[in-house]
Amino acid sequence: MTMPFCENKSPRRLCEEIEKVIPPTGRIVRRPFNHYVPTFTDWWMVPSLALPFFKFGKYFFSWDETKREEIRVGFHLTKGLDPALKAVYPSRRGKRLLMDDTWGWHAFFPATQEGTLERLLREIAAPDRMPVRLVFEAGYIDDPDLFEPAMEQRKRDTYTIEFNPAADSVKVATARRDAMCLKFLNKVRDFSTLTKAFAELDAEQFLWCDLFLFLPYAVCEYGDYPAGSTVRSAEEIYQHTLRPFREFVR
Fold first, then answer.
1. DSSP label at residue 216
2. How much is the pLDDT for 150?
3. Distance separating alpha carbons of residues 81 and 144, to the nearest angstrom
4. Close Cβ partners of 240 (under 8 Å, ≥ 6 residues apart)
5. Predicted structure pTM score
6. Pairing of strands 5-6, 231-232
């Protein structure tokens, strides 16, 4: 099926319109990735004013700033480091990398083990029958105060897992293995093996991982939409793609 279009033509505009349709239950704050170029940069919706906000589950709206052909709309979450590693990350900034009870990962991880994630993926894929993508970006990191960030060349793995509702399949779509830290994702063949992969990820004490779960929406930057196109409003995108994950934006 052809990718549906987004009525709003940039992450910023879509984020602003999404803010208007989210039910007023709890704080949610719009933040640009690069506040110097807010019109063209990616945007986030975060459930707190606290910085840094990597520990929170959040909505994200991103695109390729050079092509601007589609907006990736979805949920983002970070798995931090095990609190048992406090001796390895002794600095003030290092301690912020250790997960405590306030991290969103602790609320989301059980959903990956109890069948809730499968239900949610099927729910957001249903309206347009479009594949849902899960991108894992992971690597090992040091205490920020124990090395020079400008000199550090951290290697990361990036895997894309795709759920295709038309084929009812779950598979690895792309994989970049620079750090060789996400090899367990090679085993993903269905929802059962995806569940096991999340359990292995959770057990990795030293592994920092960013998870992006999203649907892409096409952008018609100029002119009319192609004949027969599906065009989604911000309210429809919220209801179809973002609302199912609202409980994890925390």
1. E
2. 44
3. 13
4. 124, 127, 128, 215, 232
5. 0.94
6. parallel
Answer whether 214's CB lies under 8 Å from 132's CB.
yes
For the chain, give the percent of residues with pLDDT over 70. Answer: 97
What three-state secondary structure class fits 210? strand
Rounded Cα distance, 102 and 133, in Å: 26
DSSP 14-26: HHHHHHHHS-SSS
* 90-107 per-position pLDDT tens digit: 999 999 999 999 999 999
Q: In the prediction, which pLDDT does 147 show?
A: 55
What's the CA gap between 202 and 72, in Å, rounded?
Answer: 25
Rounded (10°) angle between helices 105-113 and 116-125 = 90
Tens of pLDDT, residues 47-95: 998 888 999 999 999 999 888 999 999 999 999 999 999 999 999 999 9
**φ, ψ at 54 (rounded to 5°):** -70, -20
Q: For 105-149, give the DSSP string.
A: HHHHHHHHHSSHHHHHHHHHHTTTTPPEEEEEEEEE---GGGS-G
15 has which bridge partners?
none
